[in-house]
UniProtKB/TrEMBL annotation, chain B:
Name by which UniProt lists this protein: ABC transporter
Family: Belongs to the ABC transporter superfamily.
Swiss-Prot/TrEMBL keywords: ATP-binding, Nucleotide-binding, Transport
Taxonomic source organism: Pseudothioclava arenosa
Protein's UniProt keywords contain Nucleotide-binding: yes
MF term (GO), any: ATP hydrolysis activity
Length: 301, 291
């Protein structure tokens, strides 16, 4: 057919391509997927809002002079960190789980996934590349906020508790990994953004409800065995984070009451902090792996 | 190159692809036609590994695993609807270059031919472009890739007639790749293809290979009668070497067998005029004047 011969308009295109045929097979790597996800998220409104909230909270606490106040003998940066980390516990998981749960299912609904997955990228690279990029993204503003606090402490002449900074960063990273895993699992399972959003909110609310001392009190009142109640508390990543952040400035866990004996007897301070870092991280990775398993076995679009 | 063996895909127990068996060889340029819901897009999604399915899809004798990145490196795809990607155009082109081996110089050439200045649009978010611009960028990315198979799902739906013509020329120039083009405008892609596959309810109902049936050198004799004299139609047929009678209503002439699809494409544009049409094979009759 005449139309199938080389077009005089574009005499070089086919030849140039043909010359490259012998080259290596192109493949989209983890770095490229991460870079794509990072730049995509850096442009998104959820990330801007999240960053403003996370960094803004720290600035707010600094400007209100909370580091100059004294509670239970704590003052300076330790006081600032304790307050910040308690507030972050309320904000961080909600932001992470809601924004993440909508991400992949939203891309699927919009048709972005159909196009982007037509490139030579393995599902493993695509999924875990996005996971790692999101982890970097959600941690960056928190680390920036903690860095701001350290700079503020140095400027004000406070002693900077670097050890606490390190431990708090680790706890936040573990919590972020956990809720990222939940978000990825929800996103992989859900068939619409509405379902993903509803499911992520429900999970967050459930974990917050199980955090409530009142709920635990009711459980005890209903004659559940104490081990069951304490088991629930230990299995709740939010509670693990909360207790570990308390134990760092209150090693006797006076604030926690009698339950502290169980924790201190079974774990000790170091053991519990290690648990609070390792367990949410492992849980997040397992849930994310489940999400990947589901993602790779169902229809992608 | 691609072997599809008893490929089935069901949604809620309804078979969208029903034990479809097909092979695509290197050099095949296929027009995939069929009404809405015939299964064309589902077939593409199975080829790209987007859908799980029954049956087997194998690239060059591979084991036929659902999604093979090595095989995808050889396939370029333009979807029916451009995705609302938020990334700037420049980022998409960089992704195609680094992740799929697209040639930046070639993409620049192709975009230019399609009337897109990449320097002008590279910082604009992809989703903010017009429908036609998006389609042109996707075509640019696909044609800029070192692909052995190009899959186009209604690729020219958003293009204006001028861009459509350039697009067809660009496809025609890519002689090194096989093509699978789903289109409702057979007349448009007819000059490009050497095989037409029609699908209906998830099955292949027609697999017409021009290479086999319409050999170079064979001719068909066409006789056409129209309802009223029509100057543009007469001029179009004159270009094919047709003669007309005194009334200007009856035309007859030769059609090179290998140009049958293109000829039918011309007729399709004037379909409402045609009262009678015959197309008979004349294997040995080489006419004096051909197009």
């Amino acid at each position: 057919m005449n139309a199938m011969s080389s077009d005089p308009l574009f005499p070089q295109g086919g030849d140039r391509i043909a010359a490259r045929k012998s080259g290596a097979v192109p493949r989209t790597g983890l770095g490229l997927v991460m870079r794509l996800e990072l730049s995509e998220s850096l442009r998104s409104r959820w990330f801007h809002f999240y960053s403003i909230v996370v960094v803004g909270l720290m600035l707010l606490l600094i400007t209100t002079g909370i580091s100059e106040s004294r509670v239970l003998g704590f003052t300076g940066l330790s006081r600032l960190l304790v307050t910040y980390i308690q507030i972050a516990m309320a904000v961080l998981p909600l932001f992470i789980v809601v924004s993440t749960a909508r991400s992949m299912v939203g891309d699927r609904e919009a048709g972005n996934l159909e196009y982007m997955l037509s490139f030579p990228v393995t599902l493993r690279v695509w999924y875990w590349g996005r996971f790692l990029a999101r982890l970097v993204l959600v941690l960056s503003p928190v680390l920036l906020a903690l860095g701001l606090a350290a700079v503020y402490g140095l400027v004000r002449g406070h002693s900077v508790p670097w050890w606490h900074f390190g431990l708090y960063s680790g706890l936040v990273a573990a919590l972020a990994a956990c809720f990222l895993g939940i978000g990825f699992l929800v996103s992989s399972i859900s068939r619409s953004t509405e379902v993903a959003l509803g499911a992520s909110l429900l999970i967050w609310l459930t974990l917050v409800a199980l955090l409530d001392l009142l709920l635990l009190a009711i459980l005890i009142q209903q004659h559940f065995i104490p081990e069951f109640v304490i088991g629930i508390a230990l299995a709740n990543p939010l509670q693990a984070f909360r207790t570990a952040s308390m134990i760092l400035f209150d090693p006797q866990l006076i604030l926690l009451g009698p339950a502290s004996y169980v924790i201190l007897d079974h774990f000790g301070v170091t053991g519990y902090v290690a648990w609070a870092m390792a367990y949410p991280t492992a849980l997040g990775l397992v849930l994310a792996a489940l999400g990947y398993w589901r993602f790779s076995r169902t229809d992608l679009v | 190159m691609i072997t599809i063996d008893r490929l089935s895909k069901r949604f809620d127990r309804r078979a969208v692809l029903d034990e479809l068996t097909l092979s695509i060889d290197a050099g095949d340029r296929i027009a995939l036609i069929g009404s809405n819901g015939a299964g064309k897009t589902t077939l593409f999604r199975c080829l790209l590994g987007h859908y799980g399915h029954e049956g087997r899809v194998g690239f060059d004798g591979s084991a036929g695993q659902r999604r093979d990145a090595g095989a995808l490196a050889r396939v370029a795809f333009v979807p029916q609807l451009p995705p609302p990607l938020r990334m700037p155009v420049g980022e998409l082109l960089t992704f195609a270059e680094k992740g799929a081996g697209a040639d930046p110089a070639l993409m620049r050439d192709i975009a230019g031919k399609m009337g897109i200045d990449l320097d002008e649009v590279k910082k604009r978010p992809f989703y903010r472009l017009s429908g036609g611009q998006k389609q042109k960028i996707l075509v640019t990315v696909a044609l800029g890739r070192n692909a052995d198979l190009m899959i186009f799902d209604e690729p020219s739906a958003n293009l204006d007639p001028a861009a459509r013509a350039v697009f067809i020329d660009l496809l025609a120039a890519r002689t090194d790749a096989s093509m699978l083009i789903a289109s409702h405008r057979l007349e448009e892609v007819a000059p490009l293809v050497n095989r037409v596959i029609e699908m209906d309810r998830g099955r292949v109902v027609l697999d017409d290979s021009v290479a086999d049936r319409l050999r170079a050198g064979d001719f068909r004799r066409a006789e056409i009668e129209i309802s009223a004299p029509h100057e543009p139609f007469a001029r179009a047929l004159e270009g094919w070497g047709f003669v007309t009678d005194a009334s200007g209503l009856r035309f007859s002439g030769p059609v090179p067998a290998a140009e049958t699809f293109r000829f039918l494409g011309v007729l399709a544009r004037h379909g409402s005029l045609i009262e009678r049409l015959s197309l008979e094979e004349v294997p040995q009759a080489a006419p004096e004047k051909v197009n």
